[in-house]
What does this fold into?
Amino acid sequence: MKGLILGAGYATRLGELTRDRPKPLLPIAGRPILDYLLDHIEQESDISEVIIVTNTRFAAHFQTWQTAQNRSFSLCILDDGTTSDSNKLGAIGDVRFTIQKLHLDDDLFVIAGDNLFDFDLRPFFAAFAQCGSSVGIYDVKDINLMPRYSEVQMDHDGRILRFIEKPKEPATTFMAIALYAYRREHLPLLESYAREGGNMDSPGHFPAWLCQRAAVYGHIFHGQWYDIGHIEQYQEADAMWRSKQAANQLRDFSLQHSFDRNRAPGEER
It folds into this structure.
């Protein structure tokens, strides 16, 4: 399996924050968002390479970031050749570009570079191995938020029945995260999707089309998840991760203090 992180957007809604820096490299609690994604991906031993598709404007930023990385998989920075929001390829366009450019013929894990979460990806990959092409699902628990997202309706086996981008009248609070795993045999269908005039921007449009032609399954995640779409979300996520970081440091300190206190007299540290 290969991994593909979508990082070619221009994040215009974040204003000055992303004028001179790509969104996946924005710091959350002192670390780039992208570092957290790679930490999660690194737990999956079947991923041999992670490709980060970006644009000409920000390619050098990712290349500089890459020099400090030491991962269990290889990293590839791929420039899609675009220079602004007006000529971008779109998320699905970038998936297609990457497959064509690198002649990929593997199962493919695709995730948007602005996803921030604390849940484990390994159950998702296990479900993918058993069921096939899969989409990450999250319960936002507030139906009024659903018009911002992609609504997903599933049967009792988890197979996706309906996948609606930005529903006007949502019937459920289950939405699709920009997190997908595709069987290699489904990837050539991107060409059929493109020939039919499919939307190449939002990454949810392709699985919405695919689930009407092939079996695609939803995997529900539980935990903290943020889609860094605007400044308020970014600030909220940064505060949350700083709080989690402080709690972890306090827990580690307490454990160490307890260990020291219970250590036998004269026992070395």
